Amino acid sequence: MPLYMDRHDLPGVTAAEVAQAHMTDIAIEATYGVHFLAYWFDADHAEAFCLATAPGPEAMQEVHRAGHGLVPNEIIAVSEDEVLRFLGRVAEPADQGPVDSAFRTILFTDLEGSTEMNRQLGDERALAVRRRHDEIISAALATTGGRQVKSLGDGILACFMSVVKALECAVRIQQGVASIAGPEWPLRVRVGLAAGEPVADGDDLFGLAVNLASRVCNACEPGAVFVTSTVRDLAVGKGHEWDDVGEHSFKGFDEPVRVYRLRWSA
């Protein structure tokens, strides 16, 4: 398959944002018949370069457009000999296995007042509400490509390769819950997000990023989406609106963490 290299002019974009964009490209590349082999970011000149095999330059551009909107300024065809002279061999997937990244966006949810709900509605009706709540979360995860790591009784722990998709999932959850809440029971959910490199143990995730997302969720107002400044920064330029809710001191973290509320509408 032909080999291409592209160039992106990215003033104001950080290395972390480029890394996140590259992970998004990898997640959807197969849909377009593209395989990304490597990328580079020149912070001094605010330029990024991607190397990929693709059916044509249009397919490579469509991956970028669909994944994050950072379309290249230029795409050129290159030969393997040219790449070898410049970089040395770039391993094919058969040589190195699936490409993945440790970086994830972590999402926690928490259903407010579930014990009180059982008391007021009775076990049978409360169970029906809980099942609908679970269906809303499952649908939101399926639509946005999130992975539910585990159920926590009154909520879930999930992870995403894309910050933007994680935020979309959070909004879908809140919109779905708002659609079934009523005067008989004001059902509300907290959603908290953080980003980092969790440690995997089988299908489970551990580490500071997971702990931080849990703390942010606990601090969240019912019916709201709270995120760390890292999540907010990684979503820059994607049309979100935020309220600064100040610095929070969380157990297990030496420094205060600035938290933002994502604005969403039903």
Number of helices: 9
Number of strands: 13
Strand content: 25-35%
- The CATH architecture name of the largest domain reads 2-Layer Sandwich
Question: How many domain units?
Answer: 2
CATH topology of the largest domain: Alpha-Beta Plaits
Q: Structural class of the secondary elements?
A: alpha+beta
Largest sheet: 7 strands, mixed
Q: What are the salient characteristics of this protein?
A:
single chain; elongated; 266 residues; 4-stranded antiparallel sheet; Alpha-Beta Plaits; alpha+beta
Describe this structure in words.
The chain folds into two domains: 94 residues, Alpha-Beta Plaits; 159 residues, Alpha-Beta Plaits (2-Layer Sandwich). It is 39% helix and 29% strand. It has nine helices and 13 strands. Helix 5 crosses helix 6 and helix 6 packs antiparallel against helix 7. 36% of the residues are buried.
What's the helix and strand layout?
Layout: E1 3-9, H1 15-28, E2 35-42, E3 47-53, H2 57-67, E4 74-78, H3 80-87, H4 93-96, E5 104-111, H5 114-121, H6 123-144, E6 147-151, E7 156-160, H7 163-180, E8 189-196, E9 199-201, E10 204-206, H8 208-219, E11 225-228, H9 229-234, E12 242-248, E13 257-262
Parallel strand pairs: 8-11
Antiparallel strand pairs: 1-3, 1-4, 2-3, 5-7, 5-8, 6-7, 9-10, 11-13, 12-13
Helix pairs in contact: 5-6, 6-7
